[in-house]
Amino acid sequence: MDILLIAGLWLDGSAWDDVVPELEALGHHPVPLTLPGQGDGATTATLEDQVAAVLSAVDRADQPAMVVGHSAACTLAWLAADARPEKVAKVALIGGFPSADGEAYADFFEAKDGLMAFPGWGPFEGADSADLDEEAKRTFEAAAIPVPEGVSKGVVHLGDDRRYDVPVVLVCPEFDPVQAQAWIDEGELPELAKARHVDLVDIDSGHWPMVTRPKELAQLLAAAATA
């Protein structure tokens, strides 16, 4: 199966470099995406540009694909299911949750000169970054790509209820499935509460398992693609 891989904020397609060969060895066709404004040199990209790039990849797939979103990009994966419910076989969400209609995409940190830079490790102390050593943190920070404000402050638009029929697997890294299910039950994750097929799977990692647990992550994604 084609597995489209969308990394979260400040990352480009190279974030999946250690996952791709593992998925290929398991018989799948991984397609890491570099989004407009996150690796192509553009600084004025919008959320609509990123959605269009994801949909273009979905449309190029020979058969319905699994779309994988990490962190904030979980919303991009869900937007793909909304726009192409007949072409998205499954959505995999890693360490994040889809925003609801009308919400901002990822307006988490202050933007300067039109760009939201990586804010440093302070906001990610604890479980998020516990499995990253100092060298890994330095490497990540040096490569982090400031996200255009047109992306981070873009407004999410959802409109096709058929997205709720697309199966979802939620990969739980810095939180566990019990916590995630409680958030769903309590109404904190309205899009997942309405989804009709949601599986929760655990991975013993921080927020970036593609960096710290690439083999295990690939195995989970491969299992989800073939389930």
UniProtKB/TrEMBL annotation:
<keyword id="KW-0378">Hydrolase</keyword>
<protein>
    <submittedName>
        <fullName>Alpha/beta hydrolase</fullName>
    </submittedName>
</protein>
<dbReference type="Pfam" id="PF12697">
    <property type="entry name" value="Abhydrolase_6"/>
</dbReference>
<dbReference type="InterPro" id="IPR050228">
    <property type="entry name" value="Carboxylesterase_BioH"/>
</dbReference>
<dbReference type="InterPro" id="IPR000073">
    <property type="entry name" value="AB_hydrolase_1"/>
</dbReference>
<dbReference type="GO" id="GO:0016787">
    <property type="term" value="F:hydrolase activity"/>
</dbReference>
<feature type="domain" description="AB hydrolase-1">
    <location>
        <begin position="3"/>
        <end position="219"/>
    </location>
</feature>
<dbReference type="InterPro" id="IPR029058">
    <property type="entry name" value="AB_hydrolase_fold"/>
</dbReference>
